[in-house]
């Protein structure tokens, strides 16, 4: 444990104290599938220069530190925000709606680390099938920061990106320092090693970017895409994110369907985004009414659906289809989500070619109980 403490520049007692205070938490379930890792912790919040989600692992090749993916700040208005934050050229990239995965190589195998710094068995199994080792052997100091997208996703399932799960690189960084490569270098690497990359819609001068971003956002919104991340092509300035109205509404719909589980902040912030976008896009009455209807539908329809379900005697579950190639990984994943504190059940695996399909159902207890309580005639305090 001393070596792990050293790796993040704290004393051994201080490290133990961080564990006691739950700032440092276990990052994986020990298993032969993770045979290159002996011990691993993740930071639950920022400590010194180390971001939340940083992983500190004792591996067969010594101690590894994989820095947490930095938070991306959000713009609520495009003008003057973009030109205030950047000068020179910016890349307008697609913000894909999945979950953040850092892919690294420890010892002989690849590992997939999710946002909070956990090594995820489900994601690791897929990463090992989809990425070969060449890139990691050529660049042992680099990690691939990817968005894991698609329907068969345990965390953020979306049909828009295909019916399986796939990985799109959006940053290439030094895993130890978090230093990002420039956009052109990232493009070169993705090209050379054949990685899919989050789409770059345009590269423009920051001064005119607001107009281009608006066009892109309106267009991709109609396709149901999430939004954009605006990045300094040199990656010297921190990027900024901005989302489409359709994505905000899809969050609202999701949040109200499971309103017991989702905080008021989650819902309120999406409504504020809509207010600023509607104002900035200088909408005429028709467009404004369309937006109002979209927001209203998002809030109401999904909530009524949940109420109907509980009224008919059902419990509220969020269900997603997963695919495993090894049943051991399924067992490992079950333990993984148990440790995450998710109240879930799994269907029996069903063989499908060389894999097994399993439904992962997350129980939304608070939403179910609240609705039930109200329908029984109790008062809302
Ligand atoms: P954050 O703390 O970064 O704000 P969040 O959970 O609130 O995290 P999001 O609102 O989804 O996340 O926005 C940031 C995330 O967007 C990144 O962590 C990354 O996973 C995802 N993302 C998708 N596409 C891109 C892209 N092209 N560039 C950077 N990040 C992207
Ligand atoms: Mg996201």
Task: Describe this structure as you would to a colleague.
It is a single chain. Strands 5-13-12-6-11 form a five-stranded mixed β-sheet. The radius of gyration is 22 Å and the shape is globular. The chain has three domains: 166 residues, DNA ligase/mRNA capping enzyme (D-amino Acid Aminotransferase, Chain A, domain 1, 2-Layer Sandwich), CATH 3.30.470.30; 56 residues, Dna Ligase, domain 1, CATH 3.30.1490.70; 66 residues, Methane Monooxygenase Hydroxylase, Chain G, domain 1. The protein starts with a helix and ends in a 6-residue tail after the last helix. The longest helix is centred in the C-terminal third of the chain and has 27 residues. β7 and β8 form a beta hairpin. It has twelve helices and 17 strands. It is α+β, with helices and mostly antiparallel strands and 381 residues long. The protein binds adenosine-5'-triphosphate (ATP) and magnesium ion. The site of adenosine-5'-triphosphate (ATP) has 13 residues, from β6.
Largest sheet composition: 5 strands, mixed
CATH class of the largest domain: Alpha Beta
Strand content: 25-35%
Which structural class is indicated by helix and strand composition?
A: alpha+beta
Estimated radius of gyration: 22 Å
Number of DSSP helices?
Answer: 12
Give the cofactors and ligands: adenosine-5'-triphosphate, magnesium ion
Give the structure's gist in a few sentences.
The chain has 381 residues and is an alpha+beta fold. The protein has twelve helices and 17 strands.
Layout of helices and strands:
Blueprint (H helix, E strand, L loop, with lengths): L1 H6 L4 H9 L3 E3 L10 E7 L11 E5 L2 E5 L6 E2 L6 H5 L3 E7 L3 E8 L2 E6 L6 H10 L3 H5 L3 E8 L16 E9 L8 H11 L6 E6 L3 H14 L4 E6 L7 E4 L1 H13 L6 H17 L4 H27 L5 E8 L2 H14 L3 E3 L3 E3 L2 E9 L1 H11 L6
Parallel strand pairs: 5-13
Antiparallel strand pairs: 1-2, 2-3, 3-4, 6-11, 6-12, 7-8, 7-9, 9-10, 12-13, 14-17, 15-17, 16-17
């Amino acid at each position: 444990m001393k070596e792990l403490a050293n790796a993040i520049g704290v004393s051994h007692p201080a490290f133990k104290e961080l564990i006691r205070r739950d700032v440092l938490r276990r990052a994986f379930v020990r298993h032969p599938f993770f045979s290159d890792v002996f011990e691993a912790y993740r930071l639950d919040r920022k400590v010194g220069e180390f971001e939340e989600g940083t992983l500190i692992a004792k591996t067969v090749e010594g101690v590894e530190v994989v820095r947490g993916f930095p938070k991306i700040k959000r713009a609520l208005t495009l003008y003057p925000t973009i030109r205030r934050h950047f000068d020179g050229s910016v890349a307008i990239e697609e913000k894909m709606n999945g979950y953040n995965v850092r892919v690294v190589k420890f010892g002989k195998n690849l590992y997939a680390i999710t946002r909070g710094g956990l090594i995820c068995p489900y994601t690791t199994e897929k990463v090992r099938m989809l990425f070969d080792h060449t890139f990691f052997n050529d660049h042992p100091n680099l990690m691939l920061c990817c968005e894991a997208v698609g329907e068969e996703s345990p965390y953020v399932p979306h049909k828009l990106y295909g019916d399986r799960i796939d990985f799109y690189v959006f940053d290439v960084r030094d895993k130890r320092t978090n230093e990002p490569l420039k956009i052109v270098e990232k493009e070169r690497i993705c090209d050379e090693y054949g990685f899919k990359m989050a789409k770059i819609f345009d590269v423009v001068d920051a001064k005119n970017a607001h107009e281009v971003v608006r066009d892109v956002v309106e267009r991709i919104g109609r396709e149901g895409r999430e939004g954009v991340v605006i990045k300094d092509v040199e990656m010297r300035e921190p990027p900024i994110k901005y989302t489409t109205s359709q994505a905000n509404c899809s969050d609202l719909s999701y949040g109200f369907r499971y309103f017991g589980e989702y905080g008021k902040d989650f819902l309120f912030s999406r409504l504020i985004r809509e207010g600023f976008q509607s104002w900035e896009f200088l909408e005429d009455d028709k467009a404004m009414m369309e937006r109002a209807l979209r927001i209203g539908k998002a809030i109401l329809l999904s909530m009524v659906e949940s109420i109907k379900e509980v009224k008919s005697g059902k419990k509220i579950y969020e269900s997603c289809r997963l695919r495993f190639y090894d049943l051991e990984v399924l067992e490992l994943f079950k333990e993984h989500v148990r440790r995450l504190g998710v109240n879930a059940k799994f269907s029996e695996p069903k063989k499908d070619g060389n894999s097994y399909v399993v439904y992962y159902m997350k129980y939304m207890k608070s939403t179910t109980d609240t609705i039930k309580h109200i329908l029984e005639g109790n008062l809302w305090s």
